[in-house]
Each structure stands twice: as C-alpha cells, then as structure tokens.
C-alpha cells in the first residue's frame, strides 16, 4: 500500500516535469502498479565504483606523477561538467517549482544511453504548496540526510542542498561519505557532533571545497540555493578552462614563436 502511494505521488509529480536531467514519464499503468519511464543503464553509484577501480590500477611515480596530476585535474573538471552541473540544474528546476527531492544520492542519479544524467526515484519527493510551510519527519538516506531531518525538525528545500554537498564530495574523492561508519556512528559523529567529510586537494580547488562546506553546514538558512550552486560551478569550469588554455599556450609558446615575426597584424614563420 505504501509502495503504491509512493508510485502515485511519483507519477503525479513527474507528469508535470520536463527537464533533460530528470527522468521522463511516458505512461502510467495504475491497475498493474508500474510507470513507463526513460530507460536508464546504470547509476552514478555504479559509475563511481568503476572510476575508483580505474583510479587504483596505475600509481605513477617520478616524472609521470605530473601527468597524473594534470589528468586528475581534467578528470575532476569533466565530472563537474557532466555530473555535478547537470544535477544542480535539475535541482534548481525542482526547487523553482517548490519540489523537495528528499533523497539525493548517487544511487538516485542515473545515466541514459547517451550518458545524459537523469534524476530518478521521486517516491519521497514532495511539493511544498505553501511557501511558509516546512516538511517534518525522518525521510531519506541517513548518510546523505540533513541534520534537521534527522532531528525531526521543520525543514525545507535547503535539505536537498546538504545532500548535494555530500554527493559533490563523493564525486571528487570516489568514496562514500563516512565509509566504514554504521548508522549509530553516523548519528553520533555527524548529526550530534557535527563532523563532516575530510577536505583535501583531491576534493578540487579551494572554491569547490568552500562550496561543499557551504552546502553541508548545519545552519540550513546559510546554505546556498541551487541557483547559486549552479553559478559557482559554471564559474569554476570557466576559470579552469581559461587556466588550461593559458597553460597550453605557455607550453607551446617557445615552439610557436621560434623563427616567427608579426607584421601588419599577420604572423609569418
């Protein structure tokens, strides 16, 4: 009965949503109790496990370590571009319609056949009709759950932002937040004592690390909106693109300048 209720809620929400990064609803079979949705081939959780295995295959040293560092940087940017930004766009779209997802995690982020990111499993999602209303109740996955939900306090859209901060961290380090901790430990260390995942260079630039901290702060009112998160990610990718272009120009510069001169706005070699 609960499953059918969640299915009905999911169908009602999805029939009004149209976003490239949210799973599409094509038909509803109420008597059979199933929805006809976009086909997804695997989840972000699956992809992270794959990336982690690939990341541990080769451990270059010496002169190769610089190449490894450059590759890691490009890989982080790629994941920001193809995963973090699309998820932020999808969440911005949901929040603009006052829909709280309530279970944002890699297992609920899927890949279509063309590798497009799709949010799915809207069984716990709800629409906040009254702008002054706040949700209550213990809902979601503890590992990614905002403290105010755990404490059964009133909560709003910013609870999704907290979850996004942890997804962003996991996407960067390829490890689950609080790996090795059981529910009791997470409740004590994270929810009560306020511990958060460790930040390091592997997490990305200072700007990205700062964004993670802003997202998972215990003070819900201090968390950024997804509009600001999207802008921060776009700015980061833009800066990294410019920096990469400048680096390539510096590396190629001496060869390109050798035996060349400029006259009348044209370069001759």
Automatic annotation (TrEMBL):
Pfam families: PK_Tyr_Ser-Thr (PF07714). SMART domains: S_TKc. Residues 1-237 form the Protein kinase domain. Residues 242-251 have a biased composition (Acidic residues). One of its GO terms (biological process) is signal transduction. Residues 240-269 are annotated as: Disordered. One of its GO terms (molecular function) is protein kinase activity. GO terms for cellular component: cytoplasm. This is Protein kinase domain-containing protein.
């Amino acid at each position: 009965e609960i499953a059918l209720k969640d299915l009905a809620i999911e169908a009602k929400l999805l029939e009004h949503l149209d976003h490239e990064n949210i799973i599409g609803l094509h038909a509803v079979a109420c008597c059979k109790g199933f929805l006809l949705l976009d086909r997804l081939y695997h989840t972000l959780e699956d992809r992270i496990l794959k990336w982690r295995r690939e990341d541990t295959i080769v451990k270059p040293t010496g002169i190769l370590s610089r190449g490894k560092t450059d590759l890691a940087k490009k890989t982080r940017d790629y994941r920001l571009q193809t995963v973090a930004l699309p998820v932020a766009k999808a969440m911005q779209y949901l929040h603009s319609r006052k829909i709280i997802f309530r279970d944002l995690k890699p297992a609920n982020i899927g890949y279509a056949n063309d590798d497009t990111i799709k949010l799915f499993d809207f069984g716990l999602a709800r629409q906040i009709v009254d702008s002054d209303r706040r949700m209550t109740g213990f809902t979601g996955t503890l590992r990614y759950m905002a403290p105010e939900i755990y404490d059964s306090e009133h909560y709003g859209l910013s609870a999704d932002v907290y979850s996004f901060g942890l997804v962003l961290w996991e996407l960067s380090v390829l490890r689950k937040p609080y790996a090795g901790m059981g529910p009791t430990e997470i409740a004590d260390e994270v929810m009560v004592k306020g511990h958060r995942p460790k930040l390091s260079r592997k997490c990305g630039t200072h700007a990205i690390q700062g964004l993670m901290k802003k997202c998972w702060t215990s003070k819900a009112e201090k968390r950024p909106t997804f509009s600001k998160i999207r802008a921060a990610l776009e700015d980061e990718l833009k800066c990294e693109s410019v920096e990469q272009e400048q680096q390539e120009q510096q590396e190629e510069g001496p060869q390109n300048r050798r035996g060349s001169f400029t006259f009348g706005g044209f370069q001759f070699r």
